[in-house]
Design a protein that fits this description.
Elements lengths: L1 H18 L9 H5 L3 H27 L3 H28 L9 H11 L3 H5 L16
């Protein structure tokens, strides 16, 4: 559900950009100025969450042996890779530079997960129906 909402929001944000006829403009900053701070914040948070979920998914595949968790981790990786690709294709038109690495909070969470194994690693995850989005507990 969260991914569907994210995709819908991104499409809604991009629609006005695609609806306008592209007029050659020496000042690409005019389009960028039209992007609200809230939109920039949303896109950056979405990119950060995607990066975190992808890295956590890779860790889960390495550290867990249960097939259900591995499948869930792969689904998480696949879903967040798709939304990352969408963000990467839209960000330049919006004049937004996506983060290249995790912020301190997300990196600390990855470091914590990396230090866990077995049941202790699995505890932060819960298997949920596909319609509820990511099962990672914050």
């Amino acid at each position: 559900m969260r991914k569907l909402v994210l995709a819908a929001a991104l499409v809604a944000l991009a629609a006005p950009l695609h609806a306008q006829s592209p007029a050659p403009s020496p000042q690409p900053t005019a389009r960028q100025a039209a992007v609200s701070p809230a939109t920039k914040k949303f896109v950056n948070e979405a990119a950060m969450t995607d990066m975190f979920e992808i890295q956590a998914g890779h860790l889960a595949q390495q550290k867990l042996s249960d097939a259900a968790y591995k499948d869930f981790a792969q689904m998480t990786i696949d879903d967040h890779t798709k939304t990352t690709d969408q963000l990467k294709s839209m960000a330049p038109a919006l004049g937004i530079e996506l983060p290249a690495q995790l912020d301190k909070t997300h990196q600390a969470a990855i470091d914590k997960l990396n230090g866990l194994s077995g049941a202790a690693f699995a505890r932060p995850f819960k298997l949920a129906p596909a319609t509820t989005g990511s099962g990672m507990r914050k």
